[in-house]
Amino acid sequence: MAKEKEHLNLAFIGHVDHGKSTLVGNLLVKAGTINEQQLASGEDKFRFIMDTTKEEQERGVTIDLAHQKFSTKKYDYTVVDCPGHRDFVKNMITGASQADAAVLVVAANDGVMPQTKEHMFLSMTLGIKQIIIGINKMDMEDYSEDRFNEVKEDVSVLLKSIGRDPSTVTFIPLSAFEGDNIVEASSNTPWYKGPTLIEALDALTAPEKPTDLPLRIPIQDVYSITGVGTVPVGRVETGILKKGDNVIFLPSTTVNGASGEVKSIEMHHEQFEVAEPGDNIGFNVRGVGKNDIRRGDVAGHTSDAPTVAKQFSAQVVVLQHPGVITVGYTPVFHCHTSQTACTFIELTAKLDPATGQPEAKNPDFIKTGDAAIVEIRPTKPMVLEEAKNIPPMGRFAIRDMGQTVAAGLCLKITEQ
Ligand code: GDP
Question: How far apart are CA 263 and CA 229, in angstroms?
Fold first, then answer.
């Protein structure tokens, strides 16, 4: 059997109407995943659903772009939800669709726009380490090298502001609509000597499995199985679990956590000796009963137990909030599999969203588009880790009124 190709999750980000859907549509057609019949007709032939507003559906959009797959010689790719798609941030944070890389689409005619900045800042907050810049709609600027360089310069300023060196980032002149530089180098841009989009994608590095980090398995469900006993189910986020290991579940319904020795590990109805990051497993632990643990608990080795945070400081980005956020606000934080109401107890500093630098100390409120450093106190114990130590366990989405109002990451646990 041929070796399985490595897999990458891609997010397409950028200002509305800059051509994300068109680019993904054309990419999927060129990669042979979908055929032209599945596309909408006319002007917007490469346009599909990415955003799911009614008005857009009525304009005849035909397939959902999120979760579409395509392959190149090197990798299998999945297009994960994009910002604008309702649950993008929540899905990214809770690990359902963590992107390994982002393609930032900037239209050459408009240049850098507010959402270009917001999405770049968000991609950093969400821990997306690799980014490719597609300068799109080059056909509208007569494929001008000068215009390409102007937009490239503006985007470079943004990249520097989030601590990225623009000289290590690939900029590609594109026309998503005409198909320039997507798969084949375009004769319309003879001055461009860099890779096509597909080549740039294949030059990305596949994510390494975080096997060196402490073991963390957020629990999704707990089953009782005849002949086996209690079987918590979850995905190994970091570290390695072996049969015979001593593990602890926190916060758990028992004081100081439920703990015991791992008796069995199962995946797809098969027994395994070892599980590693990305594995969805069921496992049985000696002495741990169904009522001792529940969804939202996290398992780790007893020798390096998950951190239960009483209070923490965080960096948050407010994505869409109808009003303002002030001290005392208590929405639900979605972090790994836990959903916990948490209170904003201090607004420490507002950040300049374009630079990430502190702008104002102790603002009275923060609102949509703002980024800030804040102090948070969960209303009940929850497991959380500092994002710099265990990245997948340090991110959260803040939900209220049925939508994701903000996203953030834990900078420091201030009280355990
Ligand atoms: P999104 O909101 O970023 O997903 O943008 P869309 O893909 O929906 O594109 C917005 C509009 O720009 C649509 O009418 C597209 O047909 C058009 N468009 C997208 N890419 C190009 C391009 O490369 N050249 C031209 N001329 N139009 C484009």
Answer: 10
Q: Is the fold of 6-202 the same as that of 217-304? A: no
Average pLDDT over residues 221-250: 94
Is 31 close to ligand 1, i.e. is its CB under 6 Å away?
A: no
- Pocket-testing residue among 16, 17, 39, 116, ligand 1, by greatest number of atoms within 8 A of Cβ: 17
Give the pLDDT confidence score for residue 65 in this predicted structure: 57
Domain extents for the chain? 6-202, 217-304, 308-415
Q: pLDDT digits over 8-22, tens only?
A: 889 888 888 999 888
Residue 184, Cβ density class (10 Å: 0-12 exposed, 13-18 middle, ≥19 buried)? exposed
Cβ of 177 less than 6 Å from ligand 1: yes
Which CATH architecture best describes the domain 217-304? Beta Barrel (2.40)
Residue nearest atom 18 in ligand 1 by C-alpha distance: 19
> Which residue's CA is the nearest one to ligand 1's atom 19?
19
Reported confidence tier of residue 67, pLDDT bands at 50, 70, 90: low
Alpha carbon nearest to ligand 1 atom 9, residue: 19
CA of 86 to the centre of ligand 1 (A): 20
The architecture of the domain spanning 6-202 is: 3-Layer(aba) Sandwich (3.40)
What are the respective helix, strand and coil percentages of the chain, to the nearest 5?
A: 20, 35, 45
Q: Is 181 in the pocket of ligand 1 (CB under 6 A)?
A: no
- For residue 165, the CA-to-ligand 1 centroid distance in Å is 28
Enumerate residues 6+ apart whose C-beta is below 8 A from 195: 170, 172, 203
pLDDT digits (tens, 9 = 90+) for 121-157: 778 777 788 999 999 999 999 999 999 999 999 999 9
Asked if CATH classification 3.40.1210.10 holds for the domain at 308-415, the reply, yes or no, is: no
Is the distance from CB of 18 to CB of 110 less than 8 angstroms?
yes
Q: Could you tell me if the CB of 228 is within 6 A of ligand 1?
A: no
From the CB of 340, is ligand 1 less than 6 Å away?
Answer: no
Q: How confident is the model at residue 35 (pLDDT cuts 50, 70, 90)?
A: low
Give the 3-state secondary structure of residue 411: strand
Indicate if ligand 1 lies below 6 Å from the C-beta of 50: yes
Residue with tokens 């630098």: 357
Distance CA 68, CA 32 (A): 12
**pTM of structure:** 0.76
48 has a pLDDT exceeding 80: no
